[in-house]
C-alpha cells in the first residue's frame, strides 16, 4: 500500500502560520520555519500580556483615585477603607472614572464617607 500524505492539511497548517506572521520583518513573514518561531513567541507574549494588562489598569485606577482623594485631604488607603466601611459598592474602575471626568460626583462620595 502506498504511503499516504495529507498535503491539504499540511498546507492549511502552514498557511495559517504564515497568515499570522503577516506584517513581520524580513524572513519572519515568508519562511515557514522562521515564521513559526516568531508566531509562537508572539502568542506567548499575547497570553502573558492579557494578564499584565489587567494589572496595569488596576494600578492606573489606584493612581487616579489617590490623586482625587488627596485633593480632598485623604489618602487612597483611608478613602478605600471608608468606602468599605460605609458599604459603598463602587469598584476602582468607576471611582477612577468619577475622579477623572466627574470631580463633583467624586467630591460627593468623599463627603459621604467622611
**Number of helical runs?**
5
Please give the domain count: 1
The quaternary structure here is single chain
**Number of distinct beta strands:** 0
CATH superfamily: Ribosomal protein L20, C-terminal domain
Residue-averaged pLDDT? 95
Overall spatial form: rod-shaped
Helix percentage range: over 70%
Low-confidence stretches: none
User: Beta-strand percentage?
Assistant: under 5%
CATH class value? Mainly Alpha
N-to-C terminal Cα separation, in Å? 85 Å
What's the gyration radius in Å?
26 Å
What structural category do the secondary elements indicate?
mainly alpha
Instruction: Please give the CATH architecture.
Output: Orthogonal Bundle
CATH topology: c-terminal domain of poly(a) binding protein
Question: Mind summarizing the main beta sheet?
Answer: none
Q: How do you describe this structure in short?
A:
The chain is mainly α and 114 residues long.
Describe this structure in words.
The model has no long low-confidence stretch (mean pLDDT 95). By secondary structure, the chain is an all-alpha fold. It starts with 6 loop residues before the first helix and ends with a helix. The protein is 74% helix and 0% strand. Helix 1 runs parallel beside helix 2 (32-70), helix 2 (32-70) packs across helix 4 (92-101) and helix 4 (92-101) packs across helix 5 (103-113). The protein has a single domain (9-113), classed as Orthogonal Bundle (c-terminal domain of poly(a) binding protein), CATH 1.10.1900. The protein contains five helices and no strands.
Amino acid at each position: 500500500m502506498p504511503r499516504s500524505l495529507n498535503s491539504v492539511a499540511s498546507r492549511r497548517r502552514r498557511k495559517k502560520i504564515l497568515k499570522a506572521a503577516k506584517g513581520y520583518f524580513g524572513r519572519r513573514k515568508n519562511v515557514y520555519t522562521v515564521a513559526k518561531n516568531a508566531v509562537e513567541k508572539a502568542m506567548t507574549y499575547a497570553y502573558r500580556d492579557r494578564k499584565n494588562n489587567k494589572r496595569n489598569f488596576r494600578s492606573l485606577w489606584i493612581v487616579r483615585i489617590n490623586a482625587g482623594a488627596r485633593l480632598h485631604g485623604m489618602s487612597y488607603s483611608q478613602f478605600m477603607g471608608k468606602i468599605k466601611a460605609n458599604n459603598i459598592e463602587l469598584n476602582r474602575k468607576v471611582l477612577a472614572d468619577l475622579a477623572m471626568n466627574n470631580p463633583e460626583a467624586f467630591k460627593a462620595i468623599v463627603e459621604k464617607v467622611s
